[in-house]
Amino acid sequence: MPTKKKKRISVASAKAKGRNLQNWVAKKISILLDEPCGHEDHHLIEPRPMGQAGTDIILRGQAALDFPYAVECKSGQNIGWQATVRQARANLGEYKTWMVFMKTKEFQRPVVMMDAVEFFEIYYEKHQRNFVGE
Question: SS3 for 114?
Answer without folding.
Answer: strand
